[in-house]
Amino acid sequence: xxxxxxxxxxxxxxxxxSIVALGGGHxxxxxLSAVRRLTDRxxxxxxxxxxxxxxxxxxxxxxxxxPGDLRMALAALSADTADARVWTETxxxxxxxxxxxAGHSVGNLILAGLTEVVGDPVxxxxxxxxxxxxxxxxxxxxxIALDIEADVAGLESDPRVSRCIRGQVAVATTPGKVRRVxxxxxxxxxxxxxxxxxxxxDLVVLGPGSWFSSVIPHVLVxxxxxxxxxxxxxxxxxxxxxxxxxxxAGFSSERHLHVLAQHAPDFRVDHVLVDAGSVPPGRERExxxxxxxRFGAEAAYVDxxxxxxxxxxxxxxxxxxxxxxxxxxxxTRAVSGGGREIVSWL
Length: 346
Description:
The protein is an alpha/beta fold and 346 residues long. It has helices spanning 25-35, 53-62, 68-77, 82-92, 106-118, 121-131, 168-173, 192-200, 211-215, 222-230, 253-263, 283-293, 314-325; strands at 19-23, 42-46, 137-140, 147-153, 162-166, 177-184, 203-206, 234-238, 271-275, 298-302, 340-341. It folds into three domains: 16-46 and 190-346, CofD-like domains (Rossmann fold), CATH 3.40.50; 49-140, no CATH class; 147-184, no CATH class. The protein is built from 13 helices and eleven strands. An eight-stranded parallel beta sheet has the order 3-2-1-7-8-9-10-11, with helices on both faces. Helix 13 links the parallel strand 10 and strand 11 (340-341). The chain is globular and about 55 Å long. The chain starts with 18 loop residues before the first strand and ends in a 5-residue tail after the last strand.
């Protein structure tokens, strides 16, 4: 090729980062609402142990994986076009009344029907994703429905004795303190697409969410656990803004890290993202910094909450996560105090 035939010079641009978010329910919805601001290359890996409400009914009656958390993840990543907004509102619509459909979400029914028609839950999700013009992809943690079983203390006269409680709803609503959770079956298969996404990611985000039923289960699926250990992606653990009644009542931020370490002693993350307002400077941050170091991580204290609430603000969380996804997206300033506090972004 002659010099005259050569292609014109162009300025190379870095591709958008590939981000995988793991979780379930409202916690995952918050993460997805944030990371979709950074890239279209988003994969949501969603827990499949819900046994309550519309999801529980469809799971029991049709044998499908519980669709509710998957539906919420689809809604979080749907496009902001007129057609997509109508479809998103429709899939999120919940029937009222007192008949057989009362309490069911339209999207749950669509996913259950698509799964029967196409014969595969991942293909069903991809089909509905096209209708919603998804900015990313949603896949289940496992292709089969799972159950959660927990050892809960404080239900017997002797506080040292634990009782075995089975089912996500039962675990979340039973008085007492959850000590440990297990998945049933104990060695469930992982969704192949979820494994591929984790291994190919630039950034993996775990949490926030119901700690024992939406966060910890991801490290209890053996193949997914191994993928999280071997991925070259940066890993960020986002802590909850407050303890959750039922599952983690009375838990400090440090305690959240300790119970995760108990369930996956070899699990490592690069950063633990903490809302600055939920953990004030002082001794509590020192304890949390040491707990983060157990994961090989630094604790970063950032304002990521909606003012006056215990909900994550999507824009603030996006800015915080951007500092980890690629150096081009953010900048941090190191300070003392048992961790690293992010004080500015590009």
